[in-house]
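Service request form, structural biology core

Requester: graduate student, group of Dr. S.
Request type: structure prediction, single chain
Budget code: on file
Notes: please return the result as structure tokens.

Sequence provided:
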Amino acid sequence: MAHSKQALKRHRQSEKKRVVNKNARTRMKSAIKRVLAAAEADQKQAQIDAMRRIDKSAKVHAIHKNAAARYKSRVAKALNKAKAVAGK
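Core staff response, request fulfilled:
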């Protein structure tokens, strides 16, 4: 446990930030799961929502900007693959 006032304050700040980051990441991952599980008619709106959540998570530094790009790429790739399979 921290002993100095500075360390105690820093601990309080990091706990608050951890909760905010966890919330952002959870919402982002849930949005991604909704895209992959959505019916073809609802996929476009779900994709828009997921991309928005991913960008927002990167903006508040809950995830790294390169991780955000990777998530977006994987979602797009999965949707394109699903469309190709459905088109056959």
